[in-house]
Amino acid sequence: MTEPVNVTVTGAAGQIGYALLFRIAAGEMLGADTPVRLRLLEIPQAVAAAEGTAMELDDCAFPTLAGVDIFDDPVKAFDDVNVALLVGARPRGAGMERADLLEANGGIFGPQGRAINDGAASDVRVLVVGNPANTNALIAASNAPDVPATRFTAMTRLDHNRALSQVSARTGTPVADIRRLTIWGNHSASQYPDLFHAEVGGRPGAEVAADTAWLTDDFIPTVAKRGAAIIQARGASSAASAANAAIAHVRDWAHGTPEGDWTSAGVWSSGEYGVPEGLVSSFPVTSDGSGEWKIVEGLEIDEFSRARIDASVAELAEEREAVRSLGLV
Ligand code: NDP
Question: Which reaction does it catalyse (predicted)?
Answer without folding.
Answer: (S)-malate + NAD(+) = oxaloacetate + NADH + H(+)
